[in-house]
Amino acid sequence: LHEEFSLGTSLQPFLDGKQATSFFATYRKTPKPSGAKDVRTVFCQYGFNDLTPGRRSPSPFSTAPLVRDHIFEHGRCVALQEQKTALVLYTPKLALENYPISRLFVQIALPIHFGPIAHIWLGRNPVSKGIAQSSRHEPVTIWEGRTLLHFRPLCPTNWGCCRLATLLEERERYQVIEFQNFESWAPRIFTKQELINTLSGFVVEARTAYSEEEAEAVIEELSHATVSDEFYAERRIVHYDNGKTKLAIAYSPRTTTIQYATINGHAYK
């Protein structure tokens, strides 16, 4: 919790992820908020096909022909946080086995019902009108009011056909940021083991910045952070170091069981 923003995570998912979220952030857009229009909320979910908040989409988790939920989670999330830095790690739910899939992605969604986000960067390039794309997984930074949020993708699994690895769009009155694991015009079927092997997520850094020059300086600083993301023996092992904070975690994507989690070399408690 910070004067300008809040950032919260859960080490392991609660139930199936629809009743509670493992990642949540809010920030104020003005120095003295007077209502909902002066604050913004940040959601995330793992998605497939054309899933978008506010849009009716079929789901393998519901018997209804069309489901419309604000956030309908299709992944399992493990997160580790120290103050303003967090690892948010995703794998798709095994219920997607044998379901026709044309896209797999982790999605960050910000409501823009009261107006668009003031400043967005893809990598180090400013984004106009909330629309941008890249064939590579690149960081996305948003800066609004005095709050800067920097999202660095962790998507080591690429099932191919990813014409666009990073995608920014405005949809259904949401600013959507997507880091893709798979994209194809022809849907394919994923086995349970392939879903377990599909690794996704991001590192999020929350900072304060009082000018555009200061925001760009933060982006430059965070570009020097190091990360490793490995998978073997059905364990995902992630290490992140921004020079001030070191996060490390090893867990099973199959069960979300944590083998170890450390913050600055000390066991997470």
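Second entry:
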Amino acid sequence: MLLLKWIAAALQFLWSRVYRLFQQPRKAPMPTTEFAVIDHELTSRLGQITINWACIEEWLGHLLATLIDADSGGFSIITAQMGASAIIDAIKTVIALHEPKDPSLKEVREMVEQADELRIERNEFIHGIWDPTGCEPHTCLINTFGWKRAEIIRGRLVTAPELDEFLIDCQDWLESYVELGKRFGFPRNRGETSSIFRD
């Protein structure tokens, strides 16, 4: 019930933001009429980031299902519609309810917060506008924009080694998830007490 109230409040908040966004006239930069040709060294890594993030998001959904004692398969219908940010916020809310009684949950919360940091960086890579104009080989400028402003919020020069570092961070996160899952018993099938990762 608490989760449904939280989801309803989140949807109401998002609707109010979207409604206000379209009530205000704004000048937005027009997209290019030609697609940029991005170095294969970067795009192959970007594809791997997309694949890895889908896996991380799925594991986060299974963690949330475990925390609220829901069936992971059935609950994935809901988490598939939520997006990583909402899933992470819901996990942190549930952990906050239990952490005062079980301080060891701090480790799980910190792992989830790390996933949130990865999500922010991943969103820059995936949702940013890639512009190779004037860039050295194996580099590209990524511009990100905000909902409320048309101007560039951030420009970032990305290199292949930087994307490799991000992929390593994703792998480290997944290893941490499995290790903590074994210790804390997540994710698990409904009605069971041990993780699916049990040795």
